[in-house]
Amino acid sequence: MKVVIPGGSGQVGTVIARALHRDGHEVVVLSRKPSNCNWRVVQWDGISLGAWRSEIDGSDIVINLAGRSVNCRYTARNRHEIIRSRVTSTQLVGEAISEARRPPRLWLQASTATIYAHRFDAPNDEYTGSIGGPEHDAPDSWKFSIDVAQAWERSFAEALVPRTRQIALRSAMLMSPDAGGIFDTLLGLVRRGLGGRAGDGRQFVSWIHHKDFVKAIRWLIHHEEIEGVINVSAPNPLPNEEFMKILRDAAGVRVGLPATRWMLELGAIFLRTEPELILKSRRVVPRRLLDSGFLFSYPHWSGAARDLCRD
Question: What percent of the chain has pLDDT over 90?
Answer without folding.
Answer: 72
